[in-house]
Amino acid sequence: MAGLSINEMTTYRWSFEEDVVNYRASAIQAIGVWRQKLADFGEEKGIELLAENGLAVSNLLWAGGFTGSDGHSFRESLRDAADAVQLAAALKAGCLVVYSGPRSGHTQNHARRIFLDAIRELLPQAAQLGVTLAVEPMHAGCAGEWTFLTTLDESLSLLDTVDSPYFKLVFDTYHFGQDPHVLDHLQQIGDRIAIVHLGDSKKPPDREQNRHPLGEGNLPLAELIAGIKSTGYDGYYDVELMGEEIEAANYRDLLTSSKRAYERLIGA
């Protein structure tokens, strides 16, 4: 059954505890957990707090950076990702979001091999614990520090190469909604989507992700969600908003408007 989730990036200024309490008060069904906030609060306490408030974890953000762009070696990034898989299992998260890391001076093919090596090392542990690894491609305008995956085709090629039910795709409307041909591809990917991230925009990203509240941008959200629903996807829709306008927003109002927009979009 599809449900609404709010990503902790959306309420950036709130603490983990404030997120949980306010999401619950707003009758939100699930939360996209940000590892940094959870670590600041305490993982064991956080798991207990989520259980007390009846919040499911739609996805855990994030692990990756395997190409070495952030100063960490491949092995260091892999060890961190293995810890994140363990945490995702403890949270009973729907998936763990994974970023490949950018090219970082590698050729495209070499960067791809590095990422595939990482995924193949992580998959046995992920499968044993029942954790889906969800790779997130990004729009080329803001992918620079995060990933070399900027198109749907190259992301699907990776999924085909790995060919595991525990390796799927993050479908982010903010990134894919900029592609005028994406609606033509949706039927190919319905069973490959681990989580849908919802974001709106008035213009394509330019380095920063300046997202807008749902319905206040010009992305074809209703058509995208209708297309996703038609594939049989019935997982969570995780509202992931960020940028100057979002950080300055009244978060309680943002939760209310996001919930109303989600209900309109799902109904449509």
Structure description:
By secondary structure, the protein is of the alpha/beta class. The chain has a domain at 55-233: TIM Barrel. 46% of the residues lie in helices and 16% in strands. It contains 11 helices and 8 strands. It has an 8-stranded parallel β-barrel with strand order 1-2-3-4-5-6-7-8, surrounded by 6 helices. Helix 1 runs parallel beside helix 3 (43-53), helix 4 (74-91) runs parallel beside helix 5 and helix 8 (182-189) packs parallel to helix 9. The mean pLDDT is 95.
Order of helices and strands: EHEHHEHEHEHEHHEHEHH
CATH topology group of the domain at 55-233:
TIM Barrel
Q: What is the CATH C level class of the domain at 55-233, in words?
A: Alpha Beta
- Report the total helices: 11
Spans of at least 5 consecutive residues whose pLDDT stays below 50 are none
Strand fraction: 15-25%
- Major pleated sheet: 8 strands, parallel, barrel
Give descriptors for this structure.
TIM Barrel, 8 strands, 268 residues, globular, single chain, alpha/beta
